[in-house]
Specification:
This protein is an alpha/beta fold and about 350 residues long. About 40% of the residues lie in helices and about 20% in strands.
């Protein structure tokens, strides 16, 4: 975890008492119906990404429904802090809401590692079916004892590889330095293909690619486009080998301290914007892919079925290694969602 130094003493942010002790910020005698509740919501992606658009919509709808009672402050593009710092800040009540990559939570529960297993989900529809299942919904409450209450899963998209050379077969990745999120599964994935995994914050990727500190990475088309990674990476491989999504979580104690009408209203809005944002994620990523291709700054290579099969076979041991940690029953639930027939 990054080294943001946070006092364990619960502090006041934006006029709120995050430990639920209103008197410590002054105003403990205020009528709760007149209290302004500030929700600081930092994230690391650009405003135009699926997460950026959905966070902005949550801000707009929440403030429109509760004028003068709720103020949502969204800070995109790591303006306030990075993902690692936001996890710590939320736990201590420094901020009230996050939408952090699911990979980041494997330090708190190994069950979240399921979202990093390579080639588990073929598309966002399969991810959504799993997240809506009993097993998927159960993950939202896994971290309450650590102070995190999950409200929703937001999609970014399916992951693609970028590299300094074409990666058509797993052996092509041998010796390359891959930027990864802080995830044991992703580390094992890169080692399985002969790469050297380098854990690095999202905001550091562009410069690392530009300077050669890393040779390759994986991300979604929307992040590749919005952060201009295609300017500093000559090849992208269209693989859909993994998933990038986010857990929208709140400080559990703060959330329970909200007046019931506000809490219930915000949960309704969260459900609405989640459906809206997740429905748009695939289209945003496809639009980003087309813009990257049109830029002619990089080359996009589409792998054949046989080439994809080679990657799947090389990465299969990663599943075996992490099966017991994640839980075989949870993996089976995800596999069932992935191969479920839709419609009649």
């Amino acid at each position: 975890m990054s080294t943001l130094i946070l006092s364990p003493v619960k502090r006041c942010v934006g006029g709120l008492v995050l430990a639920g002790l209103l008197a410590s910020c002054g105003g403990g005698s205020e009528d709760p119906s007149q209290q302004l509740y500030v929700i600081k919501f930092p994230h690391v992606t650009a405003p135009g990404t699926p997460k950026g658009q959905t966070a902005a919509r949550f801000e707009d709808l929440a403030e429109a429904r509760f004028p003068g009672r709720v103020d949502v402050e969204v800070y995109p593009s790591s303006q306030l802090m990075n993902d690692d710092d936001s996890l710590e800040a939320l736990a201590f009540g420094e901020i009230q809401m996050i939408a952090v990559a699911l990979s980041k939570f494997d330090r708190l529960t190994q069950r979240f590692q399921i979202f990093d297993l390579p080639f588990l989900f073929p598309d966002l529809e399969a991810v959504e079916r799993f997240q809506a299942s009993t097993g998927g919904r159960g993950l939202l409450g896994d971290l309450v004892e650590e102070g995190f209450l999950g409200l929703a899963f937001w999609h970014n998209g399916m992951k693609q590889f970028g590299a300094t050379r074409p990666l058509l077969q797993p052996d092509d990745a041998n010796g390359l330095k891959f930027r990864i999120m802080e995830s044991d599964v992703l580390q094992a994935q890169m080692i399985a293909i002969g790469g050297s995994p380098q854990k690095m914050a999202f905001g550091e990727i562009y410069q690392a690619l530009q300077t050669g500190a890393v040779d390759a990475f994986e991300n979604t088309w929307s992040n590749i486009y919005s952060s201009k990674f295609y300017e500093v990476q000559p090849y992208f491989m269209y693989t859909n080998h993994g998933y990038v999504g986010y857990l929208v979580a709140v400080n559990a104690q703060f959330w329970q301290s909200l007046p019931g009408d506000i809490r219930e209203g915000l949960e309704e809005i969260m459900a609405e914007v989640t459906a809206w944002g997740n429905a748009r994620a695939a289209a945003i990523n496809e639009d980003s892919r087309l813009k990257i291709a049109a830029s002619q700054r990089t080359e996009i290579l589409t792998l054949s079925n046989d080439e994809i099969l080679s990657w799947q076979n090389r990465m299969q041991p990663v599943w075996v290694r992490f099966s017991d940690e994640i839980g075989p029953e949870l993996i089976e639930a995800a596999r069932s969602a992935s191969f479920m027939e839709v419609g009649n």
